[in-house]
Design a protein that fits this description.
The protein has 382 residues and is α/β, with parallel strands linked by helices. It contains 13 helices and twelve strands. The strands form three sheets. The chain has a five-stranded mixed sheet, with helices on both faces. A four-stranded parallel sheet has the order 2-1-3-4. Strands 5-7-6 form a three-stranded antiparallel sheet, covered by helices on one side.
């Protein structure tokens, strides 16, 4: 297969996912449920190029609900293919040959004739759902209709048919149509404004669904999705990946003494301190309460020549630990006896675990070991 690898979302079939692992023509994404598979297509963690194939074990979706699932997938990605993993279709994938639906020249997900969105609108829906440039696609559509259009952030004044876009914030606020009357310009602006509002709403929902509203860190849903993908990529490229779990020492009694408002403020500041210590490629996630996970990820290898992944990550973790210990928390400026420390555990792929579950378990064991050693300790795996 040439060009971008095919993105394959596999739900409910660990044997197939294991078989797909390492194939250069496939970018594998695992999903636990059919709903998670749909979310991976509709809200990918990062913009993905190339085709998408969704493979779902039939036990995950009752036969009476398969039509609804296919309709939902068609809405979020009209170009995606769907394979129900039963019989010959699954065998073909395991044997790395084309399934019957491709051999026969037909798409696995046949579009319905009734109630189907026009192809142009379907493309714009997909563009919005995937967080891509809706504005440019919309301008291309208007130009294809023979309109000479451009956008501006400020009132252009004096130009022909400038229209303020409804409900659209900066930087795009005005549509200028150079070869149409005011009525046609108003119509075009209303259409463009509606699509831009949809894109903004989807972006807001994406952020809300994947981030923690208190601290701004990624949430557990993002953590599990990102880790599954990162482990597969690390396995395929034979690179390391380290997971750190940490929490605040004695946070429950800390909340009891100072109040939950102060505790919330401390959590926000800890995330800010952490982000100042780690690298842009790393991910900070709040798993719940005062428990956080940091994914130290090096998709292109060590940033500094001669360094090894686990030891360099331990240095980063210690730097963060000392930064927290020495930080003057604004919420505690009037507390003379208040101190904040953290304890954590570092578990690295592949030495401490070969999948998300085993890495989490090992990092949690090491976190508890750090607590037993007197707190304010970062414990390290093999």
């Amino acid at each position: 297969m040439s060009g971008s690898p095919e993105r394959m979302v596999v739900a409910g079939d660990t044997a197939l996912a294991s078989s797909m692992r390492g194939r250069p023509s496939v970018e594998l994404v695992r999903a636990n449920t059919a709903f998670d598979a749909l979310a991976e297509v509709a809200l990918p963690l990062e913009e993905a190029e190339g085709s998408v194939r969704v493979c779902v074990h039939p036990d995950l979706v009752p036969s009476s609900q398969r039509g609804a699932f296919e309709s939902a997938l068609r809405l979020v990605s009209p170009e995606a293919s769907l394979t129900w993993l039963d019989g010959a279709e699954r065998d073909a994938l395991l044997e790395d040959r084309e399934p019957a639906w491709r051999e026969n020249g037909r798409h696995a997900l046949e579009p319905r004739s009734e109630g189907r969105a026009p192809s142009g609108d379907a493309e714009l829906i997909t563009t919005a759902l995937h967080g891509r440039d809706v504005l440019q696609r919309c301008l291309d559509r208007l130009r294809a209709q023979g309109l000479r259009v451009r956008v501006a952030s400020d009132d252009p004044g004096g130009t022909s048919s400038p229209v303020r876009l409804p409900g659209v914030a900066r930087p795009v606020r005005w549509l200028i149509v150079e070869n149409a009357d005011q009525a046609r310009a108003d119509e075009a602006a209303a259409w463009l404004g509606a699509w831009l509002e949809l894109a903004a709403t989807v972006a807001s929902l994406r952020k809300a669904s994947l981030t923690d509203p208190l601290t701004g860190a990624w949430n557990r849903r993002y953590f599990e999705r990102f880790m599954s993908r990162a482990i597969e990529e690390a396995r395929a490229s034979r690179r390391s990946l380290t997971l750190m779990l940490f929490d605040i020492d004695g946070f429950k009694s800390f909340n009891d003494r100072h109040g939950h408002g102060v505790g919330d403020a401390v959590l926000r500041e800890i995330v800010a301190v952490l982000k100042s210590c780690i690298r842009p490629e790393d991910r900070v996630c709040r798993l719940g309460g005062d428990e956080f996970a940091v994914v130290f990820y090096e998709p292109t290898g060590p940033r500094e020549r001669g360094t090894t992944h686990p030891s360099s990550i331990y240095d980063l973790a210690q730097r963060f630990q000392k930064a927290v210990e020495g930080h003057r928390f604004a919420a505690l400026e009037h507390e003379t006896d208040a101190s904040v420390t953290i304890s954590g555990g570092l578990a690295s792929f592949p030495w401490d675990g070969a999948d998300l579950t085993s890495l989490l378990e090992r990092a949690d064991e090491l976190l508890l070991e750090g607590k037993r050693r007197g707190k304010n300790v970062i414990a390290v795996g093999r």
